[in-house]
What we know:
The protein has helices spanning 2-38, 87-103, 124-132, 146-150, 177-186; strands at 58-60, 66-68, 76-82, 109-115, 139-141, 158-162, 168-172. The chain is an alpha/beta fold. It has two domains: 1-38; 42-186, 3-Layer(aba) Sandwich (Glutaredoxin), CATH 3.40.30. Strand 6 (158-162) and strand 7 (168-172) form a beta hairpin. Mean pLDDT is 85; it is low at 27-45.
Amino acid sequence: MKIKSILSVLLIAILLVVAVTTIVKKNIADEEKVEVITGKQAQDAGGLKVGQKAPDFKLQTLDGKEIALSDFKGKKVMINFWATWCPPCKAETPEMVKYYNAHAKDENFEILSVNAMSTESKSESVGKFIEDYEMTFPVVIDPRGEIIKQYEVLNFPTSFFINTEGVIQEKLNLIDEKQLTKVVKSLD
């Protein structure tokens, strides 16, 4: 009987160790995920670099229209990678909308907004976000995260600013209207 008691206590101890280890590992993984996705420190840690040609891609809008980066050849372009659950994305979107509506035509400028659909919990939230923020620039969906991988995006939001020759001239994580004005004017 004494052996059964010892084995029972040992089994319970092992189960507790496994449970605690699992919880700790999950919490560490969750903390790392948040830092990678939202940490401004990751701005220069990897990804495509300034001076590189921006890789072309083709994605669809929510209503199925195909849009390619090359459709904007000869324009200054901001490619903005974002997600609906991202607080910094929610903060910068009104700034982008305001700037775009006021200056895009006069400055030969286009925003190509790329939603990280592979990270969304519900696809309906993307359409609601676009509507709520009155996004008038093209919004395409990256359903499997392929373009995010191609551009080596490490956190959201990330924006690449591309000149009229298709070369990346700036990469920023969180922008406001003042920064947008400065960066767009510097694009050649």
